[in-house]
Amino acid sequence: MSKNKAYLHCIERQKAQSLWRQKLQASKYFDEFLVETMSAAKSLGRITASLIKAKQSVPHYNGSAMDGIAVWAADTFGALETLPKQLNLLSPGQLFRAGGCYLVDTGDLIPEGTNAVIMIEDVHIKDNKAEIVAAAAPWQHVRIIGEDIVANEMVVSEHKLITPEDIAAMLAAGIEEVLVIKKPRVAIIPTGDELVASSHELKPGAILDVNSHMLAAAIESWGGEANCSAIIKDQRAAIKEAVVSSLAVCDMVIVNAGTSAGTDDYTAEVLGELGEVIAHGIAIKPGKPVVLAICQGKPVIGLPGYPVSAMLTAELFVRDVLIARQRLPGIKAKLVETTLVKQVASAIGVEEFIRVSVGNVQGKMVCVPQGRGAGMLSSLTKAQGVISIDAASAGLNAGAVVTTTLLRQVEPLDTVLAIGSHDLSLDLLGVYLRRARNNISLFCANVGSMGGIMAVRSNETHIAGIHLLDAGTGEYNLSFVQKYLAGTNWELVHLAMRQQGLMVKPGNAKNIKGISDLTRQDVRFINRQRGSGTRMLLDYELTKAAIDSFSIAGYEKEVGTHMAVAASVLAGAADVGMGVKAAALALGLEFIPVAEEQYDLLLNFAADDERRELVLAILKSPEFQNEVEALGGYDLKRAGEILIGGRA
Amino acid sequence: MSKNKAYLHCIERQKAQSLWRQKLQASKYFDEFLVETMSAAKSLGRITASLIKAKQSVPHYNGSAMDGIAVWAADTFGALETLPKQLNLLSPGQLFRAGGCYLVDTGDLIPEGTNAVIMIEDVHIKDNKAEIVAAAAPWQHVRIIGEDIVANEMVVSEHKLITPEDIAAMLAAGIEEVLVIKKPRVAIIPTGDELVASSHELKPGAILDVNSHMLAAAIESWGGEANCSAIIKDQRAAIKEAVVSSLAVCDMVIVNAGTSAGTDDYTAEVLGELGEVIAHGIAIKPGKPVVLAICQGKPVIGLPGYPVSAMLTAELFVRDVLIARQRLPGIKAKLVETTLVKQVASAIGVEEFIRVSVGNVQGKMVCVPQGRGAGMLSSLTKAQGVISIDAASAGLNAGAVVTTTLLRQVEPLDTVLAIGSHDLSLDLLGVYLRRARNNISLFCANVGSMGGIMAVRSNETHIAGIHLLDAGTGEYNLSFVQKYLAGTNWELVHLAMRQQGLMVKPGNAKNIKGISDLTRQDVRFINRQRGSGTRMLLDYELTKAAIDSFSIAGYEKEVGTHMAVAASVLAGAADVGMGVKAAALALGLEFIPVAEEQYDLLLNFAADDERRELVLAILKSPEFQNEVEALGGYDLKRAGEILIGGRA
Question: How far away is chain A from the Cα of B140, in angstroms, using its nearest Cα?
């Protein structure tokens, strides 16, 4: 399998980064850059390629800084309150003569012969005479040429990011065109027999090329200009030709992917023929199959194909090179110490990067790991930070304090965490929270109802959705929270009554009518995970019907959400699963009602946290209630009712 | 003078902001927004107008997560190391039969009839048979439909800033077009008889319209789209017409300026006729003449004409409205506690905003106020932060600890402060520092040589340029630093020998030959400020020549830099001044040498601050030395030599 031997010997990330940087420096890549001339007025956000000197002074003439009269200062000497002096008012254009003065407005040119201005408030004008009661110092209230910027002086430094203020200063200083650093052009070459360019061509086994668009946007956000080529098949010659022609017109080339050691993976080989391969295979996860090369003095990088891997490795190896090439100040990562809410395992020997959500729960900063598959786009879109686990570590325990690198402009204080049982209404709650306050984003992690109670107990979530049936009392939630939660920081609030039932493919080919059908030989079930409310409801119903779970094929196959159950049924991975009606309707499945259950929210906000009030107000708003009920199978009559605890 | 009575009664800034916000809310301005549909692939940085739901699941088929064989799990039950099982290898397309299997690559569709994948590493293939030594669990190594994103599930929330990762997720989920919030259109209407649109039309008394470009760039940086109109004369009807036609096509209108209470200031009147004026005149400096209005339910704002005032008031009143209109998360100002290096006076009754530079000097965060004129563009381009002085305060003393609001992405730790005597070579030093490290920016404040020594003494600058002649010894600098500086944190490093002399206009009409001519009746002098090295050199030369300074016309008129002296001479504000040759050459003046003087730098970096090494390396580099010498009148033979102190 391993055609490329180098790939067997993964090198450390730090080593790869510094080697890559050194080699690029040695090839003078950072010493040269392309420049272009552009209109100064349109140059916002660009980088000056050289020091910019003023072409003219600002102000460009001696002007009045006040509304008043322009005088020859010496003529005013001796004027006092007790001994006013009178000056002769001259008309504009009239030649100056001793003892004369002119009316001037702010910004007016100081007439020839005058050298000071007296404020109009201090002048008494009558019959073409201006009476003054104080002497003027020479050049008082005069803005002289170059008071702000002197011609030939520096206006904007070299390699500076141009701001709106810089634009104003340049224009005022007579600079209409400015030499800026050209945006580096980065070629993106998507490769792969399985890739298609649009979802219309999508069929099973085909993969939509989303990476090109993601990488192009990332490059744009780092100041570069992406140059996406058409999809190249897994053919050596075609890949080589694409790289060669890209090298001719671009500053950097990305080949995506073909970077593994499989039989159809030609990237490393091709780059080795065109230049020097610096590294092939880096000891990170995700993202191991990276190829770093230098061809014709330019960086060429092979990125892995899975989106999460492609994005992470672009951040690790493409971003800094692009930024240095443009002379942009390096980006300083924002770091925050957080408490990890659940254990994460990690392989020894690779540095592992895990996307996380970050929130401040009653003063404790917590981080919640996302799904970790390299193909999990959802982990990319929902993450607010990333943690890395050292190659020497086998993982981190829940409760460990870890340094989280925040992504972009994230303000973690404003993330509302909802860890517990998931319900589709929580996504809508997130939307309503954001409508109320643009700074708020809601992050959901699905760990089931019991997981949610535990997360509240250890102060690791703001909200936990729960629907736990007490088999003894037939009551929901109350007995569980009373058993597991102490103190008064939390409160239980009703959200909805919702219908739970069995979901089957349209047509119900296997004619499933209720839970007694689950034991049939020809029926494959898909289950929810232990600790989830749906699982407990199922077990309760099975006990009531005296059904042994061992007799159900697929009882042991667990997934984490209602939608995942529905998707498994739709995909044919199972014939039937249990979940809420809304999930079945969302995917067009048939729904066989089993029970109505109570879905409540545990709220866990600090006393002065306005977000608690916001959540309660949203739950009670008819707009929200109607929108949730429209999903199907919901009754929100009592939504927002505080069931226990609370500060109301 | 005061036609608009309201203007007499300035209101507080906070009150104006909240009134403005309330009134806009009352007119439902923030409830509505325009939307547009655009290509998801191109939507980087836009805001989603609604919750985005997946159109298809990701993955969209059940695929292999490994290279290996696809099997029916039940066929594999019972396989053990000691009791291997053999499966029949079927060709692609061949119908599945019990005990069969297919070779699959990662990403391949799982063939009909199979429900699990066994890694190729665990399979022994021979003669169309696949031997396995362990059972496969159903659905192992299979990525099932919707494992990442389930159709109809939320992919991106409402009112979210679209990232590269969001683009990937949307495309993968079958979303090719996305509904986003339309960029708010902001009309900018420049008004004023004195305004001209290009520097070619510039003549004394005319002002180049730089504000329109500055405001347009600022609006762009806040997510809006600027719509600049042509310059409108100070005529009521014309201004009114421009506002009316802008209201028809824009979300917000800026009139700049005509906002004062002068006879030609119509903005407040016009806006009062078209809608409601919320405030006219705000108790801030700079920026008092602001008009806040609502016309046809839209915000219309009159901004003052001076660039510093226009920018400050745009930041105070335009930015937040634009951001809220787009549903962008509010910008949280970065605050830092700093020590003020010099006293600033402030008028009681107005809140004063002062732009500052910020730097970390040996662990002490200091802030250096910029020039404060409302017309000083240079204070805008050089500032890294802004401080505000309360309306109740008469000012702040040097040494006061003040909260500085940082502007944009400033990283103050990396600003090198150069406070002292200015020399043109310092701008070049800044350029070279930035070339070495893109994070470094050099900020110069000109307070003269003695001011520089004092700034080092109180640990408020990294670098101080000094050129102080000891009249007793004829030696430069050494005796002064030994007298005023204790400790060993600083060191004195030589920069250049430079020529000082008299500057006169080309042609030298008054035939000035040396300092003895300064006492002539027909000669007007312009001086440097007390404490500056040039002033001390002049005084030394006057003493040597037994000239009484009282006999020099203009001796009392002081400016702060060599270039300001040169500019005053060029402008005709004086006939002659003293300064370095480079300044004279820069403005094309004639230069009459008086003396060669020694210009040194005091360096004041922490022991582990790599910037000290950088500065020394630059001073010694032939490239820097040649570039400074090319300015004229410099000799850098001994540049970089450590004269006293230091850690070398």
Answer: 10
Nearest to A431 among B157, B166, B215 (CB): B157
> What is the assigned CATH class of domain A63-143?
mainly beta
C-alpha span between B470 and B450 (Å, rounded): 12
Please give, rounded to a whole number of angstroms, the shortest distance from the CA of B645 to a CA of chain A.
31
Point out the residue among B67, B202, B378 whose CB comes nearest to the CB of A148.
B378
The minimum CA-CA distance between B485 and chain A, rounded to whole Å, is 31
Chain A residues closer than 8 Å to B573 by CB:
62, 115, 139, 142, 144-145
Indicate the residue of B138, B165, B207 with minimum beta-carbon distance to A381.
Answer: B165
Which residues belong to CATH 3.40.980.10 in chain B?
184-325
Measure A425 CA to nearest chain B CA, in Å: 11
A to B CB pairs, distance under 8 Å: 336
State pTM to two decimals: 0.91
Backbone angles phi, psi at B260, to 5 degrees: -80, -160
Domain with CATH 2.40.340.10 in chain A: 335-408
- Residues in chain A with CB shorter than 8 Å from the CB of B152 are 563, 586-587
* Residue limits of CATH 2.170.190.11 in chain A: 63-143
**How many other C-beta atoms are found inside a 10 Å radius of the C-beta of residue A586?**
22
The answer to whether residue B4 scores a pLDDT higher than 50 is: no
Query: Quick one: pLDDT at residue B439?
Result: 83
Mean pLDDT value across residues A159-187: 95
Task: Please report which confidence band the pLDDT of residue A413 belongs to, taking 50, 70 and 90 as the band edges.
Answer: low
Contacts of A139 in chain B (CB under 8 A): 557, 573
| Burial class of residue A50, CB neighbours in 10 A (0-12, 13-18, 19+) | middle
The CA-atom distances, in angstroms, between A42 and each of A37, B142, B191, B215, B218 are 11, 52, 21, 12, 11
Task: Tell me the shortest Cα–Cα distance from B224 to chain A, in angstroms.
Answer: 14
In this structure, which amino acid lies at residue B312? Answer: L
A573 closest CB neighbour out of B62, B154, B572 = B62
Residue A148 or B387, more confident = B387
B437 exposure class (CB count in 10 Å sphere: 0-12, 13-18, 19+): middle
- Give B65-84 pLDDT, tens digit per residue: 888 999 998 899 999 999 99
Closest residue by Cα to residue A177 from A81, A43, A282, A307: A43
CATH number at A335-408: 2.40.340.10
More confident residue, A262 or B53: B53
Per CATH, the architecture of A424-645 is what? 3-Layer(aba) Sandwich (3.40)
Interface touch A573/B329, C-beta < 8 Å: no
Structure tokens given for B454: 């004092």
pLDDT of residue B409: 60
Contact flag A164-B218 (C-beta cutoff 8 Å): yes
Mapped to the 3 state alphabet, what secondary structure does B349-409 carry?
Answer: CCEEEEEEEEEEECCEEEEEECCCCCCCHHHHHHCCEEEEECCCCCEECCCCEEEEEECCC
Residue B32's pLDDT is what? 84
Whether A2 has a pLDDT exceeding 70, the answer reads: no
CATH placement of domain A184-325: 3.40.980.10
Give which of B134, B71, B140, B142 is closest to B106, Cα–Cα. Answer: B142
Domain A43-58+147-181 adopts which CATH fold?
Molybdopterin biosynthesis moea protein, domain 2 (3.90.105)
Between chains, do B62 and A571 touch, taking CB under 8 Å as contact? Answer: yes
In chain B, % of residues over pLDDT 90: 73
pLDDT at B3: 42
B428 contacts A62? CB cut-off 8 A: no
Give CATH 3.40.190.290 domain extents, chain A: 424-645
All CATH 3.90.105.10 domain ranges in chain B, comma separated: 43-58+147-181
Position B648 pLDDT exceeds 60: no
Which of B151, B221, B376 is nearest residue A164 as measured by Cβ atoms?
Answer: B221
Residue A27 has pLDDT above 60, yes or no: yes
**Residue from A3, A96, A153, A308 whose CB has the most chain B CBs within 10 Å, to mutate:** A153
